[in-house]
Amino acid sequence: ETGVTQSPTHLIKTRGQQVTLRCSSQSGHNTVSWYQQALGQGPQFIFQYYREEENGRGNFPPRFSGLQFPNYSSELNVNALELDDSALYLCASSPSRTSTDTQYFGPGTRLTVL
Amino acid sequence: LAKTTQPISMDSYEGQEVNITCSHNNIATNDYITWYQQFPSQGPRFIIQGYKTKVTNEVASLFIPADRKSSTLSLPRVSLSDTAVYYCLVGDNYRGSTLGRLYFGRGTQLTVWP
């Protein structure tokens, strides 16, 4: 158990809809990262937040946005869903600001876009 | 964006030592190289992390040459439960900023046979 939780576990949406995924980090972990993992692929870095500010971003369009809150929770919002957005979405928390320091992953949210 | 290259798959037998090498270019000079293990339908789990030379913990060793363009994860005496996908994670410099982007790559599927 990493102490990182995500909700919901599974989600089904239709193309064009909007979705919000939630993550609860370990207490004291000021850095949270979000990843998209398509079937059979490695996790793709979406973005990282440190103390509620964006700390880095991968090659994802602006319709992927995030928020981090002072209570160690965070959100990933995806607008105008596309079929290719179907994937496992992972959040990971870390006590350090260093991008590649040890991250503790949640179990993920499986998003299916129909 | 930094990219990593790993073998797609490896096979081993119980009790053997397994070495998985990851090649990476353009990694950030001040970031760690981190290895993760992932089982199906679970988030990645931290194995080991290093900056240079050799690091050892209770489950693995990590060898990093001076140029940091590659790293080798060494798993001593693997068991059936080590069957999983193994990823190396690196960061890269983004427009000269210390705000990094993270790159997982496609990982190596290790299968351990009895």
Kindly describe this structure.
The complex is a heterodimer of chains A (114) and B (114). Chain A has 114 residues and is mostly beta strands. Chain A has no helices and eleven strands. The mean pLDDT of chain A is 92. In chain B, strands 2, 4, 5, 9, 10 and 11 form a six-stranded mixed beta sheet that branches. A five-stranded antiparallel beta sheet of chain B has the order 1-3-8-7-6, with no helix packed on it. Helices cover 0% and strands 58% of the residues of chain B. Chain B is mostly beta strands. Chain B has strands spanning 3-5, 9-13, 18-25, 33-38, 45-50, 53-56, 61-64, 70-75, 84-94, 97-103, 108-113. In chain B, strand 6 (53-56) and strand 7 (61-64) form a beta hairpin.
* Annotation field: number of helices of chain A: 0
How helix-rich are the residues of chain B, as a percent range? Answer: under 10%
Give the topology string of chain B: H per helix, E per strand.
EEEEEEEEEEE
Percent of residues in beta strands of chain A? over 45%
Proportion of residues in extended strands of chain B: over 45%
Specify Rg of chain A, calculated over alpha carbons. Answer: 13 Å
Number of helices of chain B: 0
Largest sheet of chain B: 6 strands, mixed
The geometry of chain A reads as globular
How many β strands of chain B by DSSP? 11
Uncertain segments of chain B are: none
Number of strands of chain A: 11
Distance between termini of chain B?
A: 39 Å
Decide which structural class fits the backbone of chain B: mainly beta
Q: Give the mean pLDDT of chain A.
A: 92
Task: List the secondary-structure elements of chain A in sequence, H or E.
Answer: EEEEEEEEEEE
- Uncertain stretches of 5 or more adjacent residues of chain A: none
Mean pLDDT of chain B: 88
Biggest chain pair contact, residues each?
A-B, 28 and 30 residues
Distance between the termini of chain A: 32 Å
